[in-house]
Amino acid sequence: MPGPRFCSQCASASLERRQPAGDDHPRLVCAGCGHVHYENPKLITGCIIEQDGRYLLCQRAIAPRIGTWTLPAGFMENGETTEQAALREVREEAGVIAEILCPYSIFSVPAISEVYLIFRARLLRDTGHFGSETLARRFFAPEDIPWEQIYYPAIRQILERYIAEREAGIYGIYMGSDDNGKIHFIR
Length: 187
What we know:
Blueprint: E1 15-18, E2 27-30, E3 36-37, E4 42-51, E5 54-60, E6 69-70, E7 73-75, H1 82-94, E8 96-109, E9 114-126, E10 134-140, H2 153-168, E11 173-177, E12 183-186
Parallel strand pairs: 4-9, 8-11
Antiparallel strand pairs: 1-2, 2-3, 4-5, 4-7, 5-6, 5-10, 8-9, 11-12
């Protein structure tokens, strides 16, 4: 994963990857001032919103994979709670004002240093307007979901599990990882 090119402390271009003394991971370290530049996973938050047995999906208008479908979700911003970030993404990407019901899934994707935190939410109001990152948004019945056009494998697994739970009438916190193929479900 590429990191910064210049030190944020002294502006030196002398950054090197090495293991600092007392640390257990290689880090990006400034050879000039010794500042350690930590690189941490990105947190993606979003919501599963169901209405009348149909699920809200957004069609991507931005790279990568323009035209594919996903849950309304995106990167958390500094200064937000996870809940605020998820509700902001739903509003921006789908034009929906929602209310969080509970956390639903924590899914790690170590290969690309991302963690997905997906909430169950309910629609409060549909503004009818969505942002520039979305080509279209639509509520799909489970049998009409364009499964082969769901871009992120993590989102597909989360949504598949949720629909199965909905049909069974049970919900838990779904924890998984695509790193080892094992999925954990806590009731």
